Give the backbone structure.
Amino acid sequence: VPRSDFMQGVTHNVLRTAGIAAVATALAIALGLLILAGVSRDLQRLAEAAREIGDGRIDVKLDIQRDDEIGALAHSFRRMQQRLRMDGLTGLANRDTIVRSIAQRIQQNRRAADAGTFAVLFIDLNRFKLVNDLHGHEAGDRVLVEIASRLRAATRSTDLVARYAGDEFVVLIDNLPDAQAAEQVRLSVEAALSQPLASVAMPGPGAPRLAGAVGLAVHPRDADTAEDLIGAADHDMYARKRAQQG
């Protein structure tokens, strides 16, 4: 049998197999490059978000949805962002978050043609130092958690409640029809604070109480920056506390 006749089928199969292998290799390389590009892009976004947080900007958005290790890392990153926004004891927003939120709300008012009214409450507990002195700091922590729960209940779900420092709290009350509505929210918060404590027993006659003074500042009537609004509410809180004591 001539060699060409004998090898014709083998040669054809070898060439066909080589062609299929070449196409498969090219597809595998292309797919690998696409995957590598996606991984590199998501890793770069993670690195950029980490730099943003390192510079103090914790509100950077990280929308990475994956089912692999990078997705797990992105999920952990978002949880870290959430914890950076929260007070670890009470679960409320922390000081940095409330200041940023008020500043963003002011910017929104400046951009909008029909900007709505919003207000800031500054809350200081009246006898909190006595709790720590008589019962210890663990009891003080329980009181702060109880007060945080009351503040959430006394405000709307759209309002932002934050632990500002120690026994001080700040509330951003949004979408108010007028300044009088803010005053009603203040009275509601004061009523919630005046209720007897469940977490510790306070000394003195009657049911254990703590209470607190609540200052109010309305934008733009009282101030036009986040720091000035909080400062105005703080000043009003001290005036209200002196009036209560008098």
Observations:
- DSSP finds seven helices and four strands in the chain.
